[in-house]
Design goal:
Elements: H1 15-19, H2 29-39, E1 41-45, H3 54-65, E2 68-72, H4 78-87, E3 97-100, H5 102-106, E4 135-147, E5 169-171, H6 179-191, H7 200-211, H8 222-227, E6 232-236, H9 237-246, E7 250-253, E8 259-268, H10 275-285, H11 288-296, E9 300-301, H12 304-310, H13 315-318, E10 328-329, H14 333-351
Parallel strand pairs: 1-2, 5-6, 8-10
Antiparallel strand pairs: 3-8, 4-6, 4-7, 4-8, 4-9
Helix pairs in contact: 2-10, 6-7, 7-14
Pfam families: SBP_bac_6 (PF13343)
Protein name: Extracellular solute-binding protein
Keywords: Signal
């Protein structure tokens, strides 16, 4: 991952580039590349190198275009991305682009710059804003990762309430702020008879988990998993899948009766200090190369169907995507807003 020295304080964004809504506004891709290389830098935020293959994606972008990538706060939550953009507004240290969970993305659309990548028409309508203010880039399924060498097999979410899991079950983040944790609570809700319209049973499940002493209030990381500090992790399948390649016995369970899918939202900061580089980054992410790099990280790229049809996909990478046998729930914006409100009012009490 490229990481440069701190950039100068004054933002350097070009006003023409900041208003561009497609590569055509630069005279085509060659013009966009030239403008981005003139800026020379790109600020990304909240992109852990082991998450969705971001490390390899950043490196490939930097090497392809000779643009230095400054990776800011790689472990930040979606809300912290927005906070950073507000706090750093007008400075060259502000994030140029965002990668956000649904609830945070859809409540901050006014902060995004509309832009349509070259492959925009190949992205399903429900997975993009009509004018390109945001576009889903990759998705996955909520899962339970666990150390099968020391714990019994997990065949359902209720298994996590068993005594063998005392002090062992961690959730990736705070569900009132982080998309992964939010989806983890929704998965629990579905397993308990709830739905995308009723997340209360999920909060109740975590209350029971906490009362049983099984809930572990530690944000899991590769280090905590490797050390055994977090032997059970509720997180996206692609993150747990990476650990299964790294740690003997680490097993990933995706419940077919409570399958929750989620897509992340890619957007350009309307106040990006490097607006041309931000737009070139988008073009790269949604190109065949960028989408195949996502698949190599175990996530489903948003253009997967179009790439399969056009045979531009990497078969070895796509073979890593998990098979799901059952109904998959993807909450709507309205369902997410209602669930987020319920979580804001009830989560702290449930696990307090």
């Amino acid at each position: 991952m490229a990481a440069g020295c701190a950039p100068p304080e004054k933002a350097t964004g070009d006003s023409t580039a900041a208003k561009a809504t497609s590569a055509a506004d630069f005279g085509g891709m060659a013009g966009l590349i030239e403008a981005a290389q003139a800026e020379g830098q790109l600020n990304v935020i909240a992109l852990p190198p082991n998450w969705a293959n971001w490390g390899a994606i950043i490196e490939a972008f930097s090497q392809t275009y000779g643009i230095e990538v400054n990776s800011l706060q790689p472990d930040a939550s979606s809300q912290e991305e927005i906070n950073a953009a507000r706090q750093q507004r007008g400075k060259s240290s502000a994030p140029d682009v965002f990668d956000l969970g649904q609830s945070v993305a859809l409540t901050n659309v006014a902060m995004f710059a509309p832009y349509k990548v070259a492959t925009f028409d190949e992205i399903p309508a429900q997975l993009k804003h009509p004018d390109g203010a945001w576009v889903n880039d990759y998705g996955g399924y909520m899962s339970v990762g666990y150390d099968a060498t020391s714990l019994p097999e997990v065949t359902g979410i209720d298994d996590l309430l068993r005594p063998e899991f005392k002090g062992k079950v961690a959730l990736n983040g705070d569900p009132t702020q982080a998309g992964a944790a939010f989806s983890g609570v929704l998965m629990a809700a579905l397993s308990q008879g709830g739905s995308a319209d009723d997340i209360a049973p999920g909060v109740e499940f975590f209350r029971k988990l906490n009362e049983a002493g099984n809930f572990l209030p530690v944000d899991p990381t590769p280090a905590t998993i490797a050390s055994g500090q977090t032997p059970v992790v509720i997180d996206w399948n692609y993150l747990n899948g990476i650990e299964s390649e790294r740690i003997p016995g680490w097993t990933v369970f995706v419940p077919n009766d409570a399958a929750v899918a989620g897509f992340y939202y890619q957007a350009i900061n309307a106040d990006a200090p490097h607006p041309a580089a931000a737009r070139l980054w988008q073009e790269f992410l949604f190109s065949d190369e960028g989408q195949n790099l996502f698949a190599r990280g175990g996530v489903r790229p948003v253009r997967a169907d179009a790439m399969i049809h056009a045979t531009t996909f990497d078969p070895a990478a796509f073979d890593r995507l998990p098979p799901i046998d059952g109904m998959v729930v993807i909450p709507t914006h309205e369902q997410t807003e209602a669930a987020a409100k319920y979580l804001a009012e009830n989560w702290a009490t449930a696990i307090g």
